[in-house]
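Two proteins were folded this term; both appear here.
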Amino acid sequence: MDIETKVLDKNAEFFGVSTEQLMENAGRAVANEANKLPYEKWLVLCGGGNNGGDGYVASRYIKNCAVISVSKPRTVLAMKNFRRAKSAGIPVYKYNIEKFKELIDKCDAVIDAMLGVGMKGKLKEPYNEIVKILNESKKFILSIDVPTGFGSENSVKPDMTITF
C-alpha cells in the first residue's frame, strides 16, 4: 500500500470508519456495479492483500460467481473475508493454471482484485501468466482500484476500473 493510501485509511479510521468497514463498502460497491452489467457468470481473481480482500467481499454480493485465490491471504482482513466468502458458500479455488483456464472459459466477466496500489516493479508469476491469459480472453474485465500490473510492462487491460 502506498503512503497516500495509508494516510487516507488512517484519516477514515480517525473519523470513525474502520479499515474493515472501508473494505466492506468497497466490495459491496464493486458488486453493485457488477450486478448492473449484462453478465451472468463472474470470476473473481483475488490476490493476497487488501485488494484481494475487496474481491472476497464483492463475491458475497454478486449473484453468480466463483473465486480463484491467486495467493494465500496475507492480511488479517483479506483472510477474514476469504473465510466469509467460503462460509457464504462461494466456490473458492486455490490457483492452478488448469482451473483458471476452465473457469475463464465458463465465465462471462472477470473481476481483477489481484494487486492494487501497493504493487511495485515487474509482475511475478503466477500474476504475469494470469494477466497474459486474461487479456487474451476478451472477457469483460472490471479492475478494483488499479489494474493488476499498472505501471509495469504487462498489466490487465480492463474494460472498467472502480476506485475508492
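Next, the second protein.
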Amino acid sequence: MVARPRRHQISLEAQLQQLTLFTDLDASTENLEQLGPIIKSLDEARQQDAFLRHLKSFVRDKDAEIEAVCDANHSEFVAAVDKLLKVRSGTVTLKHRIGELNQDVQAGGTSLANKKRQLLETQRTAANVNHAIGIIQTCLRVLDLANRVDELIQQNKYFSALRSLQELESVHLGRILHHDFAKTMLDGIPQMRNQIKTAVTSEMKEWLFQVRQKSRTVGQLALEAMEVRLKRWRIKAQRDPLLRLAKVNSAIELVVNERTEHNFVENEKVSIDFRPLYQCIHIYDALDLRQELQASYHEDRRAQANLLLNQGLSFDANPSSGGGAFPALLEEMVGFFLVEHHVISTTPAGFRAEAEVDDLWDTMCTRVCDIVSLALRDCKETKVYVFAKSSFQTFIQTLEGYSFPVTKLNALLLTLFERYAHLLRDRFSKDFQQAMSETQHQPMVVNSSDELNKVLSVCWLKPGDDEMLSKSKFPLSLPFSQTYPLCCMDIRNLVDQYYVFSDGFSFSQNHREIDEILKKSLDSLLIQQVSTAIRRSLDNTAAINLSQIAQIVVNAEHFNLACIELENLLASLRAPHGRGGKLRLDARYGGLVEDNDGISVGAFTSQC
C-alpha cells in the first residue's frame, strides 16, 4: 500500500493576519491578488473547512470587539451616525444639485457650442462677405476708372484719359481677370484707345479749320508790319545815302533798323491756340503712331493750300477799293506759311519736315505765278500792275524774312515789269501819235514866265538855251513846236514810272534786266514811234510848207538832244539804286538822227 503524501499543515492564524495585513479597508476595490495565494495554500493543505471555521471565529471576535467599542462609545457613535446620515442626506442633495448643475452646464455647454458653431459660421460668412466686398470694391474701382476715362475724353483731357487707360490695363484689370467682365473690358481697351485717337484727331481737324479761318488775319498783320518796316527803312535811307544800297531783310537793315518782334499768331487781333496740335502729337506719340499723324497733317495742309489756289483770282481796276481777290490770296498764303513756320519751330523735332514745307511752298509759288500771269494776261490797266507789284513785293519780302526761297516770285515780278513796260510804251505811242496828228509844225508860243518855266522844266535844251529864253520878252516863240515838250514830259513820266515800279527789286541780276527792258522800250519809242512819226510828217510834203519842214527838222534835232540828256537822266535815276554808269541808247547812235537827217535833207531839197 502506497503511503499517501504528507500534507503540510499551514498556520491559519498566520494566513488571516497576512490577509488582514494587506487588506485596505478604505479601498474601493477588493484585494484579490493576496487572496489567491492563500486559497491555493489552503487547498493544497486541505484546510478549507478549518480556515472557514477559523474565519468565522475571527469574524465573531471582530464583531465582539466592535460591539465592545460601540458599547463604550454608543452616544458618540449614534451622533456620528446621525451626522453621517445628515452628511449622506446632504450628499444626496448635493448629488442632485450637482446633477442639476451638470445638466445646466451640459445645457449651457450645448448652447455655447451651438453659439460657437454659429460664431464660426458667422466669421466664415463675414470673411466671405469681406472678400466679396474687396472684390466688388476692386471691380468698382476698375469701373470707376473706366468711367473716368470716358469723362476725361468728354472733357478733352485726352492724355490723362490715355494714362488712366494704361493704368487700368497694366494694374487694375490684372487683379480681376478671372471675372468675365474684366476680360470683356480688357478686350475693349483697344477700342477705347481708338476712341481717344478719334477724339483727338477730330479736335485737330477742327483746329485746322479754325487755323484756315484765321490765316488771312495772320497774313494781313504780317504784311501790314512789313509795310511799316519798309516805310521806316525808306525814311532812314533818305536820310543816309549809304543805306540806299541796302534792302529790307539785308544784314545791314537787320542791324540798323530797330526791328520790332511781332507774334502774328498770338496778339490782340488774332489768337491761334496750338495746344490741340501739340496734344494730338503727344497722343499719337504715346500710341506710337507719329508717322500716321504726320501723313494726315501733311495731306490736310496740302488740301488747304490747294483750296486757296482754287479760288478765283481777280484784280480790281481801282486798287483803292481793295484790289479784288489778289490781296486776299496773298494774305492767305502769308498766314498759311507763317503758321507752318511756327509749327516747325515749336513742335517736336521731325514732326513737320522742312523739306515738306519747302516742297509745298515751291508748288504754291509755281501755281501762284501761273495764276497771276493768267489773270493779268488781258489786263491793260497800269494801275492794276502797280498795285499788283506793290502787293506782291511786300508778300515776297515778308516771307523772305522767314527764309522762304523767293527766286520764282522775283522772276514773276520781272515778268510783271515787262508787261508794265509794254503797257507804258503803248500808252506813250498812242499819246505821241495823237500829239503828232494835232500839231501844226509851228514854233510853240508862250505868253508868260509861268508857261515858259513849265516848258523848261520838262524839256531838254542845249546848255545856255534856257537862260537865253528866260531873258526874252513875251510873247515868246520857242525854237520847237508843242510836240516836243509834250513828248519830253511823257518820256520823263515814263522813265519815272519805270523806276518807281522797279523800286525794291533786290537782286543785281534783276537790275540789269530792268535796265535792259527800259533801254529797249526807250529805243523802241524813240526809233519806231518818234522817228516814224517824223518820217511820216516829212513824207506828207504835199500838205506842209517849207517852214513846217524846217520846224520838223528842228524838232528832230531837239529829239536827238533829248536822247543825250535822257542818258544823263537815266544815270541820275540809277545812282540811288547802286547802279553806276550810263545807260547807252541805240537811238542816240544813228537810229533816230541818221534816218531823220537824211529824210529831212531830201524833203527840204525837193521843196526847194
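The beta strands are 445-446, 476-477. The two ends are 232 Å apart (CA to CA). These notes refer to the second protein only.
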